[in-house]
């Protein structure tokens, strides 16, 4: 989904109802929001940023805490072994909105680039769902990058 289609298709309203229910129970409610891969296909980063800003404001209005998560890098590499970073502008926009709105931020984009560059293209592609799919993950990939999110959470919550 994109930030726009998530709203247009009704999933945002379903999410808001669930958030409202959790807040009503008196629970600290953290809401993770991650977009970019699909927004990148249809609109400039600023469009996604406008939608993220609206989402953040709505979550805060319900009494919950938004947590913006930058996109996981695609595992596409340049000849020199560095990541061919096509998602950077969308990750940067997420970071900008986090700063502007004073939200928690998990920079999975930077963490995942550092990780896949350290292990190299061959090892990084072992995490692909399909051999030529540098975006989606297999079970091992979800474990690896799930741990990256976990450690980002610990860093964010202790700083």
UniProtKB/TrEMBL annotation:
<keyword id="KW-0378">Hydrolase</keyword>
<dbReference type="InterPro" id="IPR036514">
    <property type="entry name" value="SGNH_hydro_sf"/>
</dbReference>
<dbReference type="InterPro" id="IPR013830">
    <property type="entry name" value="SGNH_hydro"/>
</dbReference>
<dbReference type="Pfam" id="PF13472">
    <property type="entry name" value="Lipase_GDSL_2"/>
</dbReference>
<dbReference type="GO" id="GO:0016787">
    <property type="term" value="F:hydrolase activity"/>
</dbReference>
<dbReference type="InterPro" id="IPR037459">
    <property type="entry name" value="RhgT-like"/>
</dbReference>
<feature type="domain" description="SGNH hydrolase-type esterase">
    <location>
        <begin position="22"/>
        <end position="141"/>
    </location>
</feature>
<protein>
    <submittedName>
        <fullName>SGNH hydrolase-type esterase domain-containing protein</fullName>
    </submittedName>
</protein>
């Amino acid at each position: 989904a994109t930030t726009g289609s998530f709203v247009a298709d009704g999933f945002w309203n379903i999410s808001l109802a669930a958030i409202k229910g959790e807040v009503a129970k008196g629970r600290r409610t953290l809401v993770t929001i991650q977009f970019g891969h699909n927004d990148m296909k249809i609109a400039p980063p600023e469009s996604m940023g406008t939608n993220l800003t609206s989402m953040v404001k709505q979550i805060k209005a319900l009494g919950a805490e938004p947590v913006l998560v930058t996109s996981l890098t695609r595992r596409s590499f340049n000849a020199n072994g560095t990541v061919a970073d096509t998602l950077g502008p969308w990750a940067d926009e997420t970071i900008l909105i986090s700063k502007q709105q004073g939200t928690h931020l998990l920079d999975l984009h930077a963490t995942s680039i550092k990780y896949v560059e350290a292990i190299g293209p061959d090892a990084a592609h072992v995490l692909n769902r399909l051999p030529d799919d540098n975006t989606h993950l297999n079970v091992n990939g979800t474990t690896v990058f799930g741990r990256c999110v976990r450690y980002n959470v610990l860093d964010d919550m202790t700083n």
